[in-house]
Amino acid sequence: MKKDEVPQHDAKAFQGRKKALYAQDEQGRLRIVPSSGWEAEEIVLDQAIAEFEAQAADALARARRGQASALEYHMYRQRMDVVLLAQSTGYFRWRVKRHLRPDLFARLPAAKLARYADALGLSVDEVRALPPGGP
Amino acid sequence: MNVSLPFEHRQSAHCESGVISALLRHAGVPMSEPMAFGISAGLTFAYIPLVKFGGMPMIAYRMPPKGVIRGLTKRLCIRMNFETFRDPKAGMAALDRHLAAGRPVGAQTSVFWLDYFPPDMRFHFNAHNLVVYGKRGDRYLISDPVIDTPVECDGAGLEKSRFTRGMLAPKGLLYYPEHIPTQLGFADAIRKAIHFNAGMMLHAPLPFVGIRGVRYMANKLRKLRAPARPSRNTAACSSATWCACRKRSAPAARASVSCMPRSCRRLRRS
After folding, report:
1. Among B106, B146, B159, B241, which is least packed by CB within 10 angstroms?
2. What structural domains and CATH numbers belong to chain B?
3. The complex's ipTM?
4. Cβ atoms < 10 Å from Cβ of B205
5. pLDDT tens, position by position, A5-37
6. Lowest-pLDDT range, A52-61, A81-90, A96-105, B261-270?
7. Residues of B with CB below 8 A from A17's CB?
8. Interface of A with B (CB under 8 A)
9. CA distance B88 to B86
10. What is the rounded distance in angstroms from the CA atom of residue B65 to the CA atom of residue B129?
11. With an 8 Å Cβ cutoff, are B118 and A17 in contact?
């Protein structure tokens, strides 16, 4: 890739930062050229984030109806899934899945909640609560 | 504690080769990032459908994490010190001791908990590498090779990053070159690295590594149908597009190979 062919598509996600790419300068030597983003990458990244947001919104709606636990909402909001949450807490996957049930989640002892809170980087109260608003 | 060690920050395309070349430059070894990557013979290709990241098969174009550091230091006979910790507090104390001793250290971290990363770029990817070169109050001074300027991160965030669990858990890994021979055999190391690389690409005994891996994946791509649930597919593409660091876990490759912009748009419309 030539220096002036390096994509400069001003990716929103970079927030003004640049990424280093190697490209040829006038003398044909490979040099680091700052790139402000590449459209293809940005599309994929946007879709990835949209997917997490859709899952979180879905979980939130179900949690408000009492069909899901707040834990499920926070899990997606922190860009995790059941596998990752299981790995980060050390619980088995089936156990995490069980804890996603609202009735069982409501009965979770503080120690287990603390483990989830720690893995999600939230406080215990935050893990229990849903964001304000809604019905 | 207030320490700020003199450390030259230079942005690089990939975190591991960036960190190890920066640490060696700091120790007085002339080493660019491409040279570090080359001597490590870090370049490879592997398409492993059995290993999935977020539901997508793994496409690797570099050696597994630590491969660059190990390959480079092995060929140049540099002895590295690696430390991992069970207790996060002990891990942070060890980091402070290194800084107090005037030694910048490399660290393996997750990306998600580093507050200087733009929020949209934070995913749970555990094999990121950075250099800690100082501390001001509770904030650590960090030279992150994929970020264009030196940055800072608060102690709690750095601790969480260094001690996340799950796949490729960093376990608080810290490393630095412990012994560097006075005479570095560059010529020999380069020759051996090229030889190793060529061998791996051409004659790897596995059908999904090297040039056979490229062909295997190309054939799979040709047979690819639009997935029934496009959203699932994009989620997978997701997990790691942005960071050059993720070269190994393939998401970047996914971005470039499986989700060219036009096909992505088509997926979106459908």
Report:
1. B159
2. 2-269 (3.90.70.10)
3. 0.86
4. 7
5. 999 998 888 888 899 999 999 998 989 999 998
6. B261-270
7. 118, 147-148
8. 11-15, 17-22, 30, 32, 34, 39-41, 43-45, 47-52, 54, 78-81, 84, 87-90, 119, 121
9. 6
10. 9
11. yes
From chain B, pick out residues whose CB is under 8 angstroms from the CB of A48. Answer: 123, 234-235, 237-239, 241
Give the C-alpha separation, B95 to B130, whole Å.
13
- Taking residue A6's Cβ as centre, other Cβ atoms within 10 Å add up to 18
d(CA B9, nearest CA chain A) in Å = 13
Q: What contacts A122, CB < 8 A, 6 or more positions away?
A: A74, A78
- Answer whether B148 touches A (CB < 8 Å): yes
Please give the interface size between A and B, counted as residue pairs whose CB atoms are below 8 Å apart. Answer: 111
Contact assessment for residue B110 and residue B161, using Cβ atoms and an 8 Å cutoff: yes
Host H or E run for residue B178: strand B174-179
pLDDT (tens digit per residue) in B192-238: 999 999 999 999 889 999 999 999 999 998 988 766 655 544 444 43
Residue B174 DSSP code: E
Q: Tell me how close the Cα of A84 comes to any Cα of chain B, in angstroms.
A: 7
Is B254 in Cβ contact with A80 (below 8 Å)? no
Q: Which residues in chain A are contacts of B36 at CB distance < 8 A?
A: none
Ramachandran category for residue A10: left, alpha or beta (phi over 0 → left; psi -120 to 50 → alpha): left
Residue owning tokens 């660290």: B107
Given B13, B54, B261, which is nearest A20 (Cβ)? B13
Contacts of B256 in chain A (CB under 8 A): 40
Query: Which sequence spans correspond to the domains of chain A?
Result: 3-37, 51-128
Candidates 1.10.260, 3.50.50, 2.60.40, 3.40.720; CATH matching A51-128:
1.10.260
Print the SS3 string covering B97-159: HHHHCCCCEEEEECCCCCCCCCHHHCCCCCCEEEEEEEEECCEEEEECCCCCCCEEEEHHHHH
Phi then psi for residue A9, to 5 deg, are -105, 15
Å between A104 CA and nearest CA of chain B: 24
Minimal CA separation from A79 to chain B, in Å: 7
